[in-house]
Structures are given as structure tokens and as C-alpha cells.
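Exercise 7b. C-alpha cells:
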């Protein structure tokens, strides 16, 4: 018969084996959970958002070629650089208006395209950064302007509802000569240094030409016209009274 001492020893060994088995199971479960966590984290979708104030892309030689920057308040910029490090082209948001620009080899702005509140516009610049030529559609009216080196507008071409118009201006930006096609009537208008219309030449809807001479207040003073094959002359005083009329 087995003594009580032997039974107790056997019981102790069984308890030790059970404790060891329990530890092994716990360690195995912990390892499995750790491995599962690593696998799940590895399979998680990567972040699709890249945040920052500036992103710089370089070429194979380590030269900066593309810069995306939002460091300037209210004016985010995407700039393309040449191998010399000069910005040659890009896009920007200035005062809330989007635009594109092209620069020369010195990094000076040579052309700018923008969309303002009144409409789209294109500007061409000289070496002194003066906008010399501009194309725009302002309030649904297309136009072209040319400026001199002093930034004075000297030529303006527009197309309005009545027809096209060409204006030549002096150095004070006063219109001195205007050629227009207004409501199917061609017209030439010459103005003095005060921008007062002094001479006008036009052809009416019936195809009859006329020349009008005006005083400093742009009041009619003389009118020479041809109606059909009949010429006529009309002279008028400042108060509007006729002085001479023929026939």
C-alpha cells in the first residue's frame, strides 16, 4: 500500500506540473496576442494626409526643382525652379485671386495670368517689371492696353456692346484720338489736351459721311456733310443759333 507520505509527494509533483503547464499556456497566449497585434498594425492603412508649411522636391542631383509653400500668409505658392535655382513658373493665390506666372532667366516676372473679381487678365512685363501689355475681360468687356516705360497707358482697344473702339492717349493718359464702330456707324474722334472732343468724322446708318467741328466746350460749331450726292454746310453759334447753312 502507498503511504500517505508518498501520496503527498505525488500530489506535490502534480501541482508543480500543473503550475508549469499554466505558465506555458499563459506565455503562449501572450506571445500569440503580441504577434497578432504586430500583424494587425502592419496591415493598418497608412495615413493619406501630409501636413506642413513647405514641401520641396529635388532632382537626382539634389537641386530644388519644385517648391510648394504656404509660409506667406494668404499667398500659397507652387513654384518650379530651373537648374540655376531661379523660379521660372508657378501658381499663386494673391488676395484670394488665383494666378499663374512665368519668369525670365533672372527670376523676374515676365508674364502673369490671373482671375480677378472683374474677370480674367494677362499681363506682359518688360525687364524693369513694368506691365507694358495687358489683355483683360473686365465686366464682360474684352480689352487690350499698351503702356509706355513710365507705366502710362497709351493705347486702349475694347469691344463693347456698341462695337469695337481704339483709343490713342497722350503722356497724361488723356484720349486724343479714338476710332470706333458704334451701332454700325464708323467714327473718328479727335480731342484736345483737355480731352474735349474737337473734330469728329462719322458715317451714319444711311452711309452718308459728315465732319463736325466743335468748340472748347464740345458744342457743335460747324458741320460738313454729304447726304446722297448733296453736300451741305452748317455753322452754329455758341448759343445754338445758326449762322450759315447751305443749301
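Sequence design result:
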Amino acid at each position: 500500500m502507498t503511504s500517505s507520505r508518498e501520496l503527498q509527494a505525488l500530489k506535490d509533483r502534480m501541482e508543480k506540473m500543473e503550475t508549469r503547464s499554466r505558465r506555458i499556456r499563459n506565455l503562449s497566449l501572450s506571445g500569440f496576442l503580441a504577434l497578432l497585434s504586430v500583424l494587425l498594425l502592419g496591415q493598418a492603412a497608412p495615413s493619406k494626409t501630409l501636413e506642413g508649411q513647405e514641401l520641396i522636391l529635388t532632382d537626382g542631383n539634389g537641386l530644388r526643382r519644385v517648391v510648394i509653400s504656404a509660409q506667406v500668409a494668404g499667398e500659397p505658392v507652387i513654384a518650379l525652379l530651373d537648374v540655376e535655382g531661379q523660379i521660372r513658373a508657378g501658381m499663386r493665390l494673391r488676395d484670394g485671386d488665383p494666378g499663374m506666372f512665368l519668369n525670365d532667366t533672372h527670376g523676374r516676372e515676365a508674364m502673369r495670368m490671373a482671375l480677378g473679381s472683374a474677370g480674367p487678365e494677362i499681363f506682359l512685363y518688360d525687364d524693369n517689371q513694368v506691365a507694358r501689355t495687358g489683355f483683360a475681360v473686365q465686366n464682360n468687356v474684352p480689352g487690350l492696353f499698351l503702356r509706355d516705360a513710365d507705366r502710362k497707358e497709351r493705347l486702349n482697344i475694347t469691344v463693347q456692346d456698341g462695337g469695337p473702339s481704339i483709343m490713342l492717349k497722350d503722356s497724361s493718359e488723356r484720349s486724343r484720338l479714338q476710332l470706333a464702330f458704334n451701332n454700325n456707324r464708323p467714327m473718328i474722334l479727335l480731342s484736345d489736351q483737355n480731352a474735349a472732343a474737337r473734330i469728329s468724322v462719322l458715317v451714319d446708318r444711311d452711309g452718308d459721311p459728315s465732319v463736325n467741328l466743335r468748340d472748347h466746350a464740345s458744342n457743335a460749331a460747324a458741320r460738313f456733310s454729304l447726304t446722297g450726292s448733296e453736300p451741305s454746310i452748317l455753322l452754329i453759334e455758341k448759343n445754338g443759333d445758326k449762322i450759315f447753312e447751305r443749301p
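Instructor comment: The radius of gyration is 43 Å. Residues 179 and 188 are 5 Å apart (CA to CA).
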